[in-house]
Amino acid sequence: ETGLTTFDPGFGNTASCRSDITYIDGDAGILRYRGYPIEQLATQSSFVEVCYLLIHGELPTSDQLAAFNDELRRHSAVPSGLRLLVDTCPGSGHPMASLSIAASGLAAFHTDNADPEDPDQVETATAQLIAQLPKVAARLYRNSTGKESISSDLSLGYVENFLHMLFGDEDFDQETKELYARAMNLLLILHADHELNCSTATVRVVGSSGANLFASVSAGINALSGPLHGGANQAVLEMLTEIERDGGDVDRFIAKVKDKSSETRLMGFGHRVYKNFDPRSKEIKKLATQILERHGRDDKLFELALKLEEIALNDPYFVDRKLYPNVDFYTGLIYRALGFPSNMFTVLFAIGRLPGWIAHWREQHAESNPRIARPRQLYTGPAKRDYPGHG
Ligand code: SDX
């Protein structure tokens, strides 16, 4: 229960493998942010409050939360040059590539806030990332659909403003707006941190060289984009669509997965750490049911997902390998029901994971003697041999 992480990315300093941020028990299916169970945070907290908790280590008082929200509003203006850069990214490109350009671009446009050794600049860079990347994400979405971007409305809450910039021209009634805000808060909270996953380890490795927060987060965005990691939520929807196109034959798909030669994976299933249910997937499945019932949609893909889960949870192939639904299995169905195109799903994962990446980068930076990551390899190449004419 010490929160000790055993993964050593070669920091050469065991202190770098310790963290006070997130505790996971993969066998018991436990996930806690700074000691608070994810189930409690997901249903009772807000994403901004969880950002504060992950970054500062304690839940904010009401004054601290108000001040943090003010700080985010104060640093929410995206530099005009960066807006131009984002607008020149073709709508046909994947928005994760544009998001990583934007994150890295913030260092080029906010030159006064990229010094990792200046605590005030780190605070400002933290606020700029959390406040500006959702605006960039909303702009990317609007551009990809050929719609005019919608200016932010700072009188709204953080999540409500994000949804306003995304869907502000839809005629949603108040009940729908509240459902969307509740769903987005919950989804962002559930994605906020997850110990030393691939993208967070990447942020730590890049940050260990002394690279600034913007550059390190940009690297994390790129690591997250892979289909084995954050890109899995999009891959799940593509998988379900393929099964539906194939007449909805779930049994045939499961047989294909079990045939190793097909190199087909049940996307959204399995996890390096969870050998039990991912506690996040339980919360997300509940939300998916609510959202789809609200939309009165007999979503065929949701039905297929339920059938796939039902079969896999009772099939020895999956049970023996301890493969359970992970955070990505149902999220894509929710994002789709909310109206997002599938190439935006991983962007939403990245917005959620921002506070975790930032918290880990800052925790590592605060160490007394942070050392550069330098993993070693086991050499398996040719023994010494001489160049012709030598030796
Ligand atoms: C995330 O690390 C994190 O915390 C990540 C994350 C976070 O919040 O940051 O939780 C987010 O990335 C969730 C995972 C999203 N990815 C997917 O859903 C893609 C599908 N899942 C897998 O590819 C796989 O399960 C991984 C990548 C998630 C984990 O891979 P591992 O731990 O390297 O597992 P493995 O490849 O060693 O597999 C062990 C066995 C193998 O079979 P055998 O060789 O023993 O016969 O299980 C099989 C694998 O073939 N297997 C699967 C499978 N996942 C593993 N078989 C079918 N379908 C799958 N999904």
Automatic annotation (TrEMBL):
Pathway: Carbohydrate metabolism; tricarboxylic acid cycle; isocitrate from oxaloacetate: step 1/2. It holds the Pfam family Citrate_synt. GO terms for biological process: tricarboxylic acid cycle. GO terms for molecular function: citrate synthase activity. Gene3D superfamilies: 2.20.28.60, Citrate Synthase, domain 1, Cytochrome P450-Terp, domain 2. The active site is at residues 271, 328. Residues 368-391 are annotated as: Disordered. It catalyses: oxaloacetate + acetyl-CoA + H2O = citrate + CoA + H(+). GO terms for cellular component: cytoplasm. It comes from the Bacteria. Keywords: Transferase, Tricarboxylic acid cycle. SUPFAM superfamilies: Citrate synthase. Belongs to the citrate synthase family. This is Citrate synthase. It comes from Murinocardiopsis flavida.
